[in-house]
């Protein structure tokens, strides 16, 4: 079993084209491109289900606001508000500590 490697978008497109041209021979494709059998199959299945855009790596990216449902928008807004609240609490705590240190020096 071959360990997979990191691939670029262009690599994934090339892998899929080769695999489809060779009658979905995932083992041969994996050996030729130095990826795992699972990667070769996964790229091909994604391509066939969603087209070339499905081969893009979207990890770590959130949905655009236009594609979010109302519930998802509210959850995202809630996360932002919680982060702002936490930051404000940290700033207040820092200022308290700073004042305490300044009073000790006087």
Give an overview in words.
This protein has helices spanning 9-21, 26-33, 37-50, 70-105. The chain contains four helices and no strands. Helix 1 packs across helix 3 (37-50). The longest helix is centred in the last third of the chain and has 36 residues, at 70-105. With 106 residues, it is mainly alpha-helical. It is elongated and about 80 Å long. It folds into two domains: 9-55; 65-105.
Tell me briefly what this model is.
This protein is mostly helical. The chain has helices spanning 9-21, 26-33, 37-50, 70-105.
SSE layout and pairings?
Blueprint: H1 9-21, H2 26-33, H3 37-50, H4 70-105
Helix pairs in contact: 1-3, 2-3
**Overall pLDDT confidence:** 89
The tally of domains stands at 2
Helix content: 55-70%
In total, the number of strands is 0
Number of helices: 4
Provide tags for this entry.
elongated; 106 residues; mainly alpha; 2 domains; 0% strand
